[in-house]
Amino acid sequence: MAKAIKTILTHSHVKNAEKFMTEFVTNVEEGRWEVDRSLYRKVKRTRDYFSCESGKQHPSKPKKTMKIEVVQDEERQIFLKNQLAEERSC
């Protein structure tokens, strides 16, 4: 049995190929390019596969947000300051 051939692609290569395929599909769908339907379907299917695999390899991290409210009332500021001091002392 022959050994399977391994292909190594970097993330930048995959992203460039995905960009090209997206542009190709867009141009065909908007009527700017006329190509064979089977070629269009193959490129579209491959683009979808690349984007799916790319998402698996580099999942986006959830963005963390901070809720910050500005307190104008001085009495409330003193209350929050004392409350925080109590939590630290416990």
Provide structural commentary:
The chain is an all-alpha fold. The protein has a domain at 11-57. It is 62% helix and 0% strand. The chain has three helices and no strands. It has helices spanning 11-29, 37-57, 74-89. Helix 1 runs antiparallel to helix 2 (37-57). The N and C termini lie far apart (69 Å). The model has no long low-confidence stretch (mean pLDDT 83).
Topology:
Elements: H1 11-29, H2 37-57, H3 74-89
Helix pairs in contact: 1-2
Mean pLDDT across the residues is 83
State the total count of DSSP E strands.
0
Reported for the largest beta sheet, the result is: none
> Could you name the ranges where pLDDT drops below 50 across 5 or more consecutive residues?
none
- Taken from the alpha-carbon principal axes, the silhouette is elongated
Class derived from helix and strand content:
mainly alpha
Oligomer category: single chain
Radius of gyration: 27 Å
Distance between the termini: 69 Å
Helical residue percent?
55-70%
What is the strand content?
A: under 5%
Question: How many helices in DSSP terms?
Answer: 3
Give structural attributes.
90 residues, mainly alpha, 3 helices, 0% strand
In short:
This protein is mainly alpha-helical. It has helices at 11-29, 37-57, 74-89.
